[in-house]
Known about the structure:
Blueprint: E1 4-7, E2 10-13, E3 18-24, E4 31-37, E5 44-50, E6 56-58, E7 66-71, E8 76-81, E9 90-97, E10 114-115, E11 119-124
Parallel strand pairs: 2-11
Antiparallel strand pairs: 1-3, 3-8, 4-5, 4-9, 5-6, 7-8, 9-10, 9-11
Amino acid sequence: QVQLVESGGGLVQAGGSLRLSCVTSGRTFDDTAWFRQAPGKEREFVAVIRRSGGSTAYADSVKGRFTISRDNAKNTVFLQMNSLKAEDTAVYYCAARFLGRLRDLKFRVVDYDFWGQGTQVTVSS
């Protein structure tokens, strides 16, 4: 029984900050990522973190503004979002996977097996 539950979304003014949380089931996934989907657009990669926390990657659109981190003791992955822009408005999803035969980080929706329900982030301008 695996599950991921996101929280922390809400309404914020442009330039403000939010911190999203993703609480997973007891088993710690190898990679946990954040994706987002705006109305009428494809779901897109935002950030990913390896279980150890030693490897992270970000979409170019959020580099320098968003930070992904994790607390394995609490089975939680965070996404700190600063300097928010109107174009960051989307439903944010937590996704997770276990490593397959390759150990590289993955950035595609199809690479992730487990998904949360999503949390709405709305940035007003």
